[in-house]
Amino acid sequence: MSEIENYLFSSIASILDKQSLKEIQRKNLNLSKNYKLRKQNVFLDDETRLAYIASRLPATYNVYKYVFNQIKSFLPHLNIKSVLDLGSGPLTALWAVLDVFEDIKKVHLVEKDFKIIELGKTLLEPLNFLLKKKEIEIEKNDLFKIKNFDYDVVALSYVVNELKLPLVDRIISKWERSQSKILIFIEPGTKYGFENIKYIRDKILKKNLKIAAPCPNILPCPMNKNDWCHFYVRVKRTKYHKYIKAASLGYEDEKFSYLIISKESSIPYQSRAIRFTKKSKDEIFLTLCKSGNILTEKILRSDGKNFKIAKKTDWGDIFNEI
Questions:
Q1: Centroid of chain to Cα 102
Q2: Whole-number Å distance between alpha carbons of 25 and 41
Q3: d(CA 152, CA 144)
Q4: Helices 114-124 & 3-16, crossing angle to 10 degrees?
């Protein structure tokens, strides 16, 4: 666990220590239902906001970290110094930005719910020693009223469901006209979340823009209509997290779909694992997105270096055969 992540979990705990966890647990059930039913996450009251930071913020932070690290892996020539996050909730992206981009100078976060912003600011207080060295702008506003997209990275997470798709087209067009280098969309790792990502992917390819991740090529998406492309991060559960979710395990797997769009070329790769790897002593089975197809590759121990590479390959990793 990184130093930033330690601060995050400690800050969440310091807030929840003073609250009625039973009421927050009840509100979290409503949040979960809304998430599954594709309803907007409207923060109706303070307890719902607290339920969000207890149950959703750690997961969203870890997803952001995963996606930001994909940028560093496949666009390593870009030195990310500025980020615009649209629909920021409790300012979650800022934690991940500080954790991943060492040279970050400027972060602009936009959220329309004033109280969730204030809660996010309270969570960030332990990081004031670090934030005062950066240019941090936190704005209460509708994301469509933001005119300046001239940031190295523009990011939107878990907000497309709350928008009509033509409005998403407007965001893409505004980004395309800007000086920004990278546009990120993150959605739930569900069938409908992937449908949003696929819609965006199709739009992007018609504009001859580039996809840095997760797609290994710009061929038509081979995913079956009854399936969906998604990935996961393993999230540590604190005692509060476990209580509010009525869970026994010390972790949970957050599923998500994402797209990193770039105006510059990224490091190419042959394929990406889109399911858990099945391993035995002498053979490994990888489910891969490769050359415009979804296929299962069998790698034998006799394959030498490829077997060693496959052995280390997990769901979401790239796989380049030698």
A1: 19
A2: 16
A3: 19
A4: 120
Kindly give the pairing relationship between strand 135-140 and strand 106-111. parallel
Q: Which amino acid is at 196?
A: N
Q: In terms of pLDDT, which residue wins out, 248 or 194?
A: 194
> How many Cβ atoms sit within 10 Å of the Cβ of residue 41?
19
User: Could you tell me which residues are beta bridge partners of residue 153?
Assistant: 83, 182
Q: Report whether 179 contacts 150 (CB < 8 A).
A: yes
Q: How far is CA 88 from the centre of its chain?
A: 12
Q: Are 309 and 261 in contact (CB under 8 A)?
A: no
Please tell me the predicted confidence (pLDDT) of residue 265: 94
Strand partners, 176: none
| Model confidence at 245: pLDDT above 90 | no
| Whole-number average pLDDT of the chain | 93
pLDDT at residue 18 greater than cutoff 80 = yes
pTM for this entry = 0.94
